[in-house]
């Protein structure tokens, strides 16, 4: 229907169609919208489901966070375990539905279930150890992160959707932090390198057509490819080379966005480039230029970025494949 409206606007502007004729076409097309398109639209049922999931998730995390000292170990575990099982079960039931609204609801339930699983497993290890030292967080955090990635991948196999791709990306970010914490002192370089590798792997698999939906796989893992070296290079003692790698990753994401006609990718790449540039200016030149001048240069970078986005947007007019 959106394409018809665009065409009608062009025909009206060119004078090849008058307004009464355009209105008749609009009426005809509105009466003949396919049933599938109508059922694909979000409805009140889907909105209520999302609201319920959000309230349940926030309630579970707040219950444990606000009452951590007052509740027993078993209660801490159950407070996260019960809603986790509920979310995974709800997702499994709704995934069998033929209604797109409920199918999308199942994906959201599984996404929340992955987050609750990570929290549940972490609290369980913290309270009971399960064969690992409760005080040595390095070991069990790595186990928790790995298990979370495996669960997210498993759910993606069952339902390759945008929500499950986001779950895998979030779990990969968590895994990167856990790997960086494996050393005696947390290593930004190791954490950032792990996240960078995960991002590059995700983008490569999406480009090969093995990781779907391609739109979300490209976008989320392209962001990881920028965030990884940025984390590794920013801060005191961070290797300068990683900052240049982050800049190159941002440029690569912009190029991929232009190549694939994906403005969201271009936006992510340009946004990442801005963050990297501004952090670089403040970290390395603030002492020489002073904060006001560093801010002025950063503002100039932002303005230049807006102009760059305006130019690149024209190169990405074709719609992205979802």
Describe it.
With 322 residues, this protein is mainly alpha-helical. Helices cover 81% and strands 0% of the residues. The chain has helices at 2-14, 19-31, 35-40, 44-66, 73-94, 100-128, 137-158, 162-180, 188-207, 214-233, 240-260, 263-289, 291-315.
The topology string of helices and strands comes to HHHHHHHHHHHHH
Structural class: mainly alpha
Helix coverage percent of residues?
over 70%
Bin the strand percentage.
Answer: under 5%
Identify low-pLDDT runs: 318-322
The number of strands is 0
Major β-sheet profile: none
> Roughly how many Å is the radius of gyration?
24 Å
Distance between the termini: 17 Å
The 3D shape can be described as flat
Mean pLDDT: 80
What structural keywords apply?
322 residues, mainly alpha, flat
Give the gist of this structure.
This protein is mainly alpha-helical. It has helices at residues 2-14, 19-31, 35-40, 44-66, 73-94, 100-128, 137-158, 162-180, 188-207, 214-233, 240-260, 263-289, 291-315. Residues 318-322 have low confidence and may be disordered.
Give me the secondary-structure topology:
Layout: H1 2-14, H2 19-31, H3 35-40, H4 44-66, H5 73-94, H6 100-128, H7 137-158, H8 162-180, H9 188-207, H10 214-233, H11 240-260, H12 263-289, H13 291-315
Helix pairs in contact: 1-2, 4-5, 4-6, 5-6, 6-7, 6-8, 7-8, 8-9, 8-10, 9-10, 10-11, 10-12, 11-12, 12-13
